[in-house]
Amino acid sequence: MPTKPLDLYFLFMGRPQGMFIEEMYIPDRHLHKEIECIFIQEGSLQIQVDEHIFTIRAGEMLVIGSNVLHEFKPKGTKDRIVKLKFLKEWLLPPYANDEERVKYNDLFSHSFKTQPDSYLSHLIDQMMENPLGDQYDFYLYSKMLEFAAFLMARPDVVTEKLESNLEYPHYLDEITCYIHEHFNEKLSLKMLANHLGLTESYCSRYIKKHTGLSFVEYLNAIRVNCAQRLLSYTDSNITEIIDATGFFSVQTFNRVFKNQTGKTPTEYRKVRRNNEKPAPKVPATVLVHQTAAIASRTLRRRNNELILD
User: Fold this and answer.
1) Residue 188, pLDDT above cutoff 50
2) Residue burial 121-151, b: 16+ Cβ < 10 Å; e: rest
3) CATH numbers and ranges of domains, the chain
4) What is the pTM assigned to this prediction?
5) Inter-residue contact 268 to 257 (CB < 8 Å)
6) For the range 273-276, what are the long-range contacts, defined as Cβ-Cβ under 8 Å and sequence gap of 24 or more?
């Protein structure tokens, strides 16, 4: 089973994740394509999803839908928390009939909270075990399939649902992927709009509508998230981090970083180093490369539907 509580937000390695999160290291308001499930084994936690705040307690789970803005409050909790992460398309069998597909897609098209249930609690416990050694990923995947089946069979466990009032944002996956791939370059709204074949004004409105952030706000959030990891888990100096995250200006980097985190980069590194247990240092180039590589997984179109390989 995974034993390291550290969660590096962008290091989603293209496979299901199941882990304990004992010390929350999660960026401020953010979104991603993966569905995220937070289960509280002990304690409680508040999570803001869009403008709604969910309070989840022991035995309850919050399922956060794909591409939904969310933020964990408070950070730094020592409560016992399990986090699951997967892509929506992974848990739908290819042989599912139309009725099953509609039911499945409807289930994971919303963010929702579940009430305590002994079956679900036992299933989460099993996910955190590893009876199959090196084949844990396969084992976890099988339990996630069971998890999806349980939720489809037991709609009564859902106690609070956040309805989506937007049509499926078909450009959002490609926008997210492109920005993640090029955030460390001199990326502009014009470059993104040209990539999508849209006008700059429409692209700008589209991002604001579906994320709640402007293009610059979203881009800077990604850059700061990466800088947070580099400050925490590498020995790179500030100049190297600025170059690696696409800011290219000390003044801009310091201003944007403090606006988002409440601390200067130097203060942030000092606090993180004082509060965290020693962690293996990773070269900055590796972290940045992993961030870009994960985001640039091949996108292809099939029958006008965006598919992530």
Assistant:
1) yes
2) bebbebbbebeeeeebeebbbebbeebbeeb
3) 17-162 (2.60.120.280), 172-308 (1.10.10.60)
4) 0.64
5) yes
6) 273/232, 275/76, 276/23, 276/232
